[in-house]
Write a structure and sequence with these properties.
- The longest helix has 21 residues.
- Helices cover 69% and strands 3% of the residues.
- Helix 8 packs parallel to helix 10 and helix 13 runs antiparallel to helix 14.
- With 357 residues, it is mostly helical.
- A hairpin with a 2-residue loop joins strand 2 and strand 3.
- Among the domains are: 80 residues, Tetratricopeptide repeat domain (Serine Threonine Protein Phosphatase 5, Tetratricopeptide repeat, Alpha Horseshoe), CATH 1.25.40; 69 residues; 99 residues, Tetratricopeptide repeat domain (Serine Threonine Protein Phosphatase 5, Tetratricopeptide repeat, Alpha Horseshoe).
């Protein structure tokens, strides 16, 4: 793993030099900046199959799952107080305004404010603040799929952290390494991605062993399991994917409780992998549990797709009346929540059932 890490860092100077003038041309629009902020990596896996076609909503960033922990890689790094001086106070206010703009979906304004903040930090020669702002920009690029730019910025942040004495197994480094692994996965470098995910698992386990009750570390571990399992699922490595989804699910229940959107998400994945392994009864069990929990989560946007998944498993087993009931429920919820994608899939499923009844 150390060799992997050193090789990754060899590219820093080359990549950063290519994009060093970030103040003028960085385009960003979704933040990962603070405690308890949702990570936009939630996805539902459709099981729908018709005419040898499989529909999968496979993008890690399409929907929203809630990993409640210190999501910014540099949590606690920028620890200045407003009373530290007027110029520092102005810098903090600028960052706060950018975050507020992001929360209001005023993304262009937020981008402008981050550039202002970076210029302020550079004028102050405040290296910690510069590193922090670069990290925010990296996360913004990551979430908006500007993957090359995100890679460049994350590597820049890593270089700055390491030069400041941060060690390779520090939690800040693990956070960034996880996102880099996901970038490599999305850009098709699966060997680098797998090595990166394993690097994160190996190093975060040290923190779990030292403090098994630290919820922030446990949820970080759950997220690593989840993202790694998603890659394994995409590669049809179903047994390994199931193992890591199950571990993520157990940690999620431990930290967040059973009635939580991420619990439903992971049950949906467990049902999906069981379906892919042709373990249909297990798939029905996981998806039924997910729908039951979903009833207590009225604000969950994409719960309709879990009902549709359940209907598709029933359809595969030849239980057409059960399938019809589940897909009708998915259709009803999709209409109520104006979930057009799920509505399309519910209608397709119901059309197939109609042909068979």
């Amino acid at each position: 793993m150390a060799i992997y890490y050193r090789r990754m860092m060899l590219n820093v100077s080359r990549l950063v030099g290519r994009h060093i003038k970030l103040n003028n041309n960085l385009k960003t629009n979704i933040p990962i900046v603070s405690y308890g902020l949702p990570v936009n990596n939630f996805k539902f896996q459709y099981l729908y199959e018709s005419s040898n076609r499989s529909y999968n909503n496979n993008n890690k960033n399409d929907n929203t799952t809630y990993y409640y922990f210190l999501l910014s890689s540099l949590f606690g790094f920028f620890n200045f107080k407003e009373e530290d001086g007027e110029e520092i106070s102005e810098l903090i206010i600028t960052i706060k305004r950018s975050i507020l703009s992001i929360q209001r979906n005023e993304f262009k304004k937020a981008e402008q404010m981050l550039h202002v903040a970076l210029r302020q930090a550079q004028a102050l020669q405040n290296q910690n603040a510069i590193t922090y702002i670069y990290d925010l920009m990296a996360n913004l690029a990551f979430e908006t799929k500007q993957l090359k730019k995100a890679e460049t910025l994350f590597l820049l942040v890593l270089e700055r952290l390491l030069s400041n004495g941060v060690t390779e197994n520090d939690l800040k480094v693990i956070h960034i390494s996880l996102k880099l692994a996901n970038i490599y996965e999305q850009t098709g470098d699966m060997e680098k991605a797998e090595t990166g995910y394993k690097y994160c698992l190996e190093n975060v386990q040290i923190y779990v062993d030292n403090n098994p009750k630290d919820e922030n570390v446990l949820i970080l571990l759950a997220m690593i399991y989840d993202w790694y399992a998603q890659m394994l699922l995409s590669q049809a490595r179903y047994a390994d994917a199931f193992k890591y989804f199950e571990q993520s699910y157990n940690l999620c229940v431990k930290v967040n409780g059973r009635e939580h959107e991420q619990t439903v998400n992971l049950l949906n994945y467990l049902g999906t992998v069981s379906y892919k392994m042709e373990e249909y009864d297990k798939a029905i069990e996981y998806l039924t549990t997910a729908t039951q929990i979903g009833r207590s989560l009225p604000d969950m946007t994409h719960i309709a797709s879990v009902h549709i998944n359940l209907g598709n498993v029933y359809l595969k087993k030849g239980l057409y009346l059960n399938a019809k009931k589940a897909c009708y429920e998915g259709q009803r919820i999709a209409k109520n929540k104006e979930d057009e994608e799920s509505l399309v899939e519910a209608n397709k499923c119901l059309d197939d059932i109609k042909k068979l009844l």
